Amino acid sequence: MISEQLVDLSRLQFAATAMYHFLFVPLTLGMVWLLVIMESVYVMTGKVIWKDMTRFWGKLFGINFALGVTTGITLEFQFGTNWAYYSHYVGDIFGAPLAIEGLMAFFLESTMIGLFFFGWDRLSKPQHLLVTTLMAIGTNLSALWILIANGWMQAPVGAEFNFETMRMEMTDFMAIVFNPDAQAKFVHTVSAGYVTGAMFVLSISAWYLLKGRNVEFAKRSFRVAAAFGLASILSVIVLGDESGYTVGEAQQTKMASLEAMWETEPAPAGLKLVAGINEAEQKNDWEIEIPWVMGIIGTRSLDRQIPGIHEIKQKNRERIERGIPAVVALEALRKDRNDAEALRVFKEHQNDLGFGLLLKKYTTDVRQATPEMIQKAVDSTVPRVTPMFWSFRIMVGLGFLMLALFTLAFWETLKGRFSEKRWLLHWALWMLPAPWIAAELGWFVAEYGRQPWTIYGVLPTHLSVSTLSVGSLYGSLAGFVGFYTLLLIIEMYLMIKFARKGPGSLGTGRYDNDVAQQPRTQA
């Protein structure tokens, strides 16, 4: 059996590198479209200040992009180094979108970003705008294919297990591409990235206005960020509702954990705002809820029930017990592929194979599984409720705070007096970390809530890891955390350095007077 410590360390290393990487990704996704908007205004109006805005915010975008690429490359390598059996088991399916991402999206965005920075004096205005637009499309295509791969892990479709090769094999590529879970995850994630980019520009522009620096430059940037941010946060909330529906359809365990729903409630279920969760007794000591809302979000109906944790565990127990013959038959087929009786039994119980494999964590021979082992396997199918419940609510709470901020910021820009509202500018400045915190919590909910599976309902996490020593994992984990922390420090140093310099760092001479109310040349 695989060491539990080995599995935990492998998970911790992947979680650490993934969460570090996603500190860079959302800003890249959001900033690039703000650059498209700013440069489009420059091309339409010819006003140089809009070109300077594109170049200045583009410089901060470029710093973030470079460091994001560095962390992303090492992240993908871990599928081969730390999750070798996972790569063997589903590589034909999972590898396809990642390969397309590299060939189609990464090369496109990498090429265009070079032209973006070095093509200002070599390309015409429309040509350079086209480059910026293609850079934005490439960035978002990259996110699309990665999230298609992740969406398949959450809701595996278009594939089936082949007992002869002992691997999952693709049967329908288009089903994988248009997987509802993947599509909902994509639009929700990129919208969150747009919010991050908008908040970044809004916060730094607010800081300039509070300092009385580069006021006209900051006002324009603030207006663009407020409008783009309002549209983006509305998209996040609406598309988050769609994500909730796909989770309710594909991962009822995650839905029940998010809602601390221990018992199946009459339809439509209510949405719990807060609750006193008692995991030891598997109940809520108290709760405050809004009637009907969760049922509508999770089922799009008024009469369908959302199963509670106790009902889900009972169903999972039945699937684990049905999965035992599937595992036994599969082991017989590995020895003799012509064993007709084993093949018959396997096909009869194949849909529950993954649940039977959960017992491999507790015994090498699932036929010898005791009731206590089966109960442990049943309990493992539900993640801890408390971190799921509160992570989700903090994420949603931050989302509505950002909605309030962007709404007021946009309203004040329409009235033309936002630069005088110091309370609004301070609020915008202090909200800078909010989208990153919300995004990290969103990924925690998505990935921790999938446990104990790497491929939901198909491949348990404890069977997916490579055969490594615990010592080597401690060493690589320390190395990754140290290296990524260094990159994060470099990112923050460079961002703060150039943000403090402001548009004067462009070297145009138009912003040499740091407190000037107008740049000397605007058109």
Helix-and-strand structural type: mainly alpha
> How many distinct beta strands?
6
Shape: globular
Could you tell me how far the N terminus lies from the C terminus, measured between alpha carbons in angstroms? 71 Å
Mean pLDDT across every amino acid position: 92
Overview of the molecule:
The protein is mostly helical. Helices cover 70% and strands 6% of the residues. It is built from 17 helices and six strands. It has helices at 4-45, 48-81, 84-118, 125-154, 173-177, 180-211, 215-250, 252-258, 293-299, 309-335, 340-349, 353-357, 371-380, 385-415, 422-430, 434-448, 470-501, and strands spanning 159-162, 167-170, 271-278, 283-290, 453-455, 459-460. The model is unreliable at 515-523 (pLDDT under 50).
Keywords:
17 helices; mainly alpha; two-stranded antiparallel ribbon; disordered C terminus; 523 residues; single chain; 6 strands
Short description:
This protein is mostly helical.
What's the structural blueprint in terms of helices and strands?
Elements: H1 4-45, H2 48-81, H3 84-118, H4 125-154, E1 159-162, E2 167-170, H5 173-177, H6 180-211, H7 215-250, H8 252-258, E3 271-278, E4 283-290, H9 293-299, H10 309-335, H11 340-349, H12 353-357, H13 371-380, H14 385-415, H15 422-430, H16 434-448, E5 453-455, E6 459-460, H17 470-501
Antiparallel strand pairs: 1-2, 3-4, 5-6
Helix pairs in contact: 1-2, 1-4, 1-6, 1-16, 1-17, 2-3, 2-17, 3-4, 4-6, 6-7, 6-15, 6-16, 7-14, 10-11, 10-13, 14-16
